[in-house]
Design a protein that fits this description.
Number of helices: 1
Largest sheet: 4 strands, antiparallel
CATH topology: OB fold (Dihydrolipoamide Acetyltransferase, E2P)
Radius of gyration: 19 Å
CATH architecture: Beta Barrel
Order of helices and strands: EEEEH
Number of strands: 4
CATH class: Mainly Beta
Distance between the termini: 69 Å
Shape: globular
Number of domains: 1
Helix content: under 10%
Strand content: 25-35%
């Protein structure tokens, strides 16, 4: 005979970030998103040379033309991120 057992179910809750709270700070022209995850996009641009840079989704402003896989144009990121990366 089996005894009582307890099953614990854990739900994954994902917070949605409101991009409208991030202020426009820094623009990178001719950027292209080449890879995407839930938390970041990988971008290539002439300003980066041969490198591809990971940009956190939380640091991309709503004015950015580059925000998901396959998008191209001007990438707009927050002041904080641009300063952290040494772009400002």
């Amino acid at each position: 005979m089996l005894g009582a057992c307890t099953i614990h179910v854990q739900r994954s809750v994902r917070k949605k970030f409101d991009r409208s709270t991030v202020k426009m700070a820094f623009e990178i022209e001719d950027a292209k998103c080449v890879h995407q995850t839930d938390r970041a996009i990988k971008v290539e641009a002439p300003d980066f040379g041969d490198e591809q840079i990971w940009i956190p989704q939380s640091q991309i402003t709503e004015d950015s033309e580059v925000y998901k896989l396959g998008t191209e144009g001007t990438l707009v990121v927050s002041d904080w991120f641009a300063e952290k990366e040494g772009w400002v």
